[in-house]
Structure to design on (628 residues):
């Protein structure tokens, strides 16, 4: 789906700078693990203050991570001078978000001049955050916990 | 759509206790403004560390607030001994989330034994957080910035 | 949400002509009941060949009706020379679509220059299509069976 | 994601019988191309009466095909005596649905006892239905035109 040469040769640095410019990413402790043309991975260590009532990662944090990964993936394929905004997204929560860390992987499925459509997956890693393997991912393994389908918009900067 | 008498006579206290048990609500600074049968309002003051790259409230925070309002609204109509989990939701972002505070209003559209369908609206209040009224809500007025359509699930506690 | 004067003074005739130009509407037997600025109602009589395996209206037909009502509602607020395309939509099915006829009501929640966000509701009317009132709408009443949240795009003609 | 042995050894015949029991599939001319555990492919030849105003396949037909493929995929992993209903779905339309035929491919991403989450993709095949290759799929190739993310529910029969 992705072009051989992204229109911004500095796409990786630009995308990492985009993440660094978002205060919420700092508050949550999220950071990019991988940035390639049309694909982004964002990681987040578990913290108790990011949880919902059962100790699992709150759906709002799940969404923040997936939304940023999708927006970043779309941004990697945009020309210099672009900004990116979320138009809409849909999230399905497949399993309790229990883990010692999480990674959101997003991919562009259609890169348009203005609108891009992306899909993202959130995986839990490590021992379950509450009481171990029963509710979460086994040590060393990854468990799929959420899916996103999103529309991102390019704006002029 | 909502029953005259909710099955849990202590629904209001139970729903406020649900919000109080969510660490993320404390981190974000969100609090219930109103809890009635099938309806919940959650308010959040703007803070710079909740923003995306343009200073607007991050879509993940918008979603956290709407998701909690929808989950709380569904919870008000559940019998004692219930818990609530998000199954899925869809968010449309209609305008930049610029304001000095925000309120999410959610309503149950169908209350099933297991699954409930809710709709939520997020409004910005007060002066725009960045550069005033041009991008955000006028003083004293409210501006619609996002819509959610969500499925919530009752679980036994 | 809607302007006092829509930018196309002939919006009603233009929107009815849009529906008339869609062959699928003829195949399904759908027709506009009401067209006003930012709002459209589309009606459809039940037919057995529009059903899924239980005799209820198929979710694809539910969606076709809601999608057209949302697209038409967005179109009423567009200037002359516009066309409308669906960007994305989300449907929640709240109850079996059992009835002798159905009506989709859609409303624009945000009318942008290019993108419009709409919400739609599908109601069943009359006796349930299969075995009467148990599964469907009571005589003379309407029953809410589905919700849509959608993004529509204006294109130049 | 899919179990080695689906709980219904006759899953393929049961799923094909499910499609055969849906009158709308006959009206649209859709038929299963492939049924395997957790995966279904449904094909549909283009017909002018299935179109929207530009001659492309109507989004309601796109949805009907994707919804049925997702429901069928979920059904292949359900035990004997099950029925399947759509709870909700989200569709992104990526490109005009122009082609001489279409195929919907769906896959189960999470198979729960009651709720299953599926993803589907719709591809256009053959020459574009209106004016050839410019707007549609090249001869022999497939072009991705829509994505679905859906929740399906098991019911007892």
């Amino acid at each position: 789906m992705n072009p051989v040469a992204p229109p911004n040769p500095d796409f990786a640095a630009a995308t990492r700078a985009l993440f660094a410019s978002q205060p919420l990413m700092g508050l949550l402790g999220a950071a990019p693990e991988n940035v390639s043309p049309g694909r982004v991975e964002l990681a987040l260590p578990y913290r108790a203050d990011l949880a919902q009532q059962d100790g699992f990662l709150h759906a709002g944090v799940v969404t923040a991570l997936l939304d940023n990964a999708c927006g970043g993936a779309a941004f990697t394929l945009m020309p210099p001078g672009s900004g990116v905004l979320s138009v809409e997204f849909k999230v399905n929560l497949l399993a309790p978000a229990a883990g010692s860390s999480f990674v959101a992987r997003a991919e562009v499925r259609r890169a348009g001049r203005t609108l891009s459509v992306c899909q993202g997956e959130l995986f839990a890693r490590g021992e379950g955050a509450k009481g171990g393997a029963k509710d979460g991912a086994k040590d060393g393994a990854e468990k799929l916990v959420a899916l996103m389908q999103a529309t991102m918009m390019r704006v002029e900067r």
Summary: The first helix of chain B runs from residue 11 to 20. Helices of chain B lie at 11-20, 23-28, 59-75. Residues 129-133 of chain B have pLDDT under 50 and may be disordered.
